[in-house]
Task: structure prediction
Amino acid sequence: MAAAEEPLFAECDESVVSSIAKAIRLLRALVAAENGEAGVTHLALAAGLPKSTTHRLLSELIHEGLVARRGSRYCLGSGWYLLRSTPTASEWDQLANVARRPLDELFEATGATVHLGVLDEDEVLYLDKLTARGGTRVPSRVGNRMPSTCTALGKAMLAHGGRLLIRTVLSKDLPRLAPRSIAAPNLLLEQLAQVRTEGLAFDFEESQPGVSCVGAPIMYGGRAVGAVSLTRVGSDVLNGDGIKVRRAASQIAASLLPC
Result:
């Protein structure tokens, strides 16, 4: 029997969450969907919404051109891509654009999976992923989120996120994605201090067994506006990987324009 699918969002209280927030949840679920399309049941589960609400919102999003229908499945519509192509690009769009060449070079030099991510509140949001043809065991997808404390990307940015952010993260139980995920606040604080000293963060099977990562923050204007990571499956990251990842992060930071 297949494992139950993990929702992107907890099921919501209909009286609390606005229609706009629900529609955004559906759009995010579509962005994260495999092959860029999904059925109503999948979207309702991923967005934490009742199927009746999902049907109604999808109809409204189709009317606005943000969603299109293919038989019984849904995908992003032309209106979504028109919004993304507007000249007033967001900070994250600029980051993804200038990061492309350094990410390509890092991938070509190592052959390992490469990620670009940003911190969205206390979670990592994946903006880009480069991997070998045929895929990889690494389950990340562009548009998906992961707990920051379980990833090299997240720890690279948390280390420079300020006391308020770290206090917010530590105010809740630290998430456990794998047996080696960090559960002790003191250990996390020690690792973040080491990141600030060395400029590198590590994830040794903390997000998934058999997967190791090294990450470096993209520092701009005294803050971490994103991070780059390199992931290896079945072995620890190599000694030279950290140097290459840090170089890519520095190249991206040097190419950013004032916002």
In short: The beta strands are 37-39, 67-70, 73-76, 113-120, 123-130, 145-147, 201-204, 211-220, 223-233. The two ends are 50 Å apart (CA to CA). Residues 9-16 have pLDDT under 50 and may be disordered.
